[in-house]
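BUG: 3D viewer hangs when loading the predicted structure for this chain

Environment: internal workstation, default settings.
Expected: structure renders.
Actual: progress bar stalls at 90%.

Input used:
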Amino acid sequence: MTTLRPGQNLLLNNRLWSLWQVSAGEGRQVALEAIGASEAARGMTRRLAGFQYGSELFIEQRRGGYWRANLEQDWQPTDNGPVLVCQPATVLDVLNAHTQSPALGPLANEFSWSYSRSARYRFCARAYYYHYYAAWEGWQPAAPPPVRTAYLLKNLTDLSRWVGTLVHDSLRFALARLKAGQPVSRNDLVGQMHRRAQADFENSQSGRYQQQPNALVGFQEHYYKIPLDKTTWQTSWQRAARLLDTFLQSELYTRLGQYSSDTFLEVETLHSFALAETKIWVQLDLARFDGQVIEIYAWKSGESDQASLRRQLGVYGLYLRQTYPEWHDKPLKGLIDYLTDNRQEEIALDPATLEAVEQEIKADIAHLRGLLVEPQINLAKIERFPMIDDRAICRSCQFRELCGR
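Structure tokens produced before the viewer hung:
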């Protein structure tokens, strides 16, 4: 890899600087120390922080933004020798270089597919790019600042999604206890939810979440300085408690409690299976087999369109067919439980439906792979993931800082 050396010259904002020290840091970091060599900067010393992707060098500007130069192409001959001419660059330029370079760490960014990943792409291609490519390795302290920012934004939530998460996590705990033959009381569940809600609000309000974005909750409202008082937060967690109560008092929960724990196959556990030479991730809310029918459940705290529900449960059905081949001839039944009004809906999961969903997944995989600049190693270019035109959607997106919207 081409690198800078002491004695070489840089041109930054029409000022010439001579390098007298170049130090490689952790990861892609490069520390530069330079002395002014032009009339406007003569005698001045400057410490510069940069990072390098192959031959692409980025140097942080003092007031935000970056300088960029290609160490193989951007040299200009002068009477004093070659000068590396650096041009202004943006955060998106840095992210674009990042997503076209293989990961440095031991954890490779491998292409995979999931229902939620596909839904994110349909929501906004640029948000998909930020989430699955720009944020990769943003958990590393030595990662470039724009990458760490993308990772932080990826992990933000908002009050609406947070309510759904509270409810799902509480249901997962309740059902796991049922599966273990140790039912938990309503008071214990609600008390646990309340303590979790308080901790989440305090971690977000204090900014503590920025130290561990993937472990502590951070609200978009706090990050973007949108007013979020305790009364609004309390109303939200109380809504979560009501949704939980609706489930706990339902005929469905009573019935589940009467079934043998041996009939429970999956309770909110992350698994994967293979399709079209691709890892497919799934996390079923609940699946159970009573010896005759395999039932697949999904909890919803809002409305969903029929096509999305059919696709989501169809993915789960394909997973169960592959995971439990001994029950290949057993019928599948999809059951949607709407917590807002204690209503159930059945989704057909016959062989024709599963075949149609499988073909949809294969087509989606081919499309998403086709967007990559190097599909074999999962490298992406930002231009292939354009922003959407609907600014109303942008106003609720956690990545709007990166898009400048």
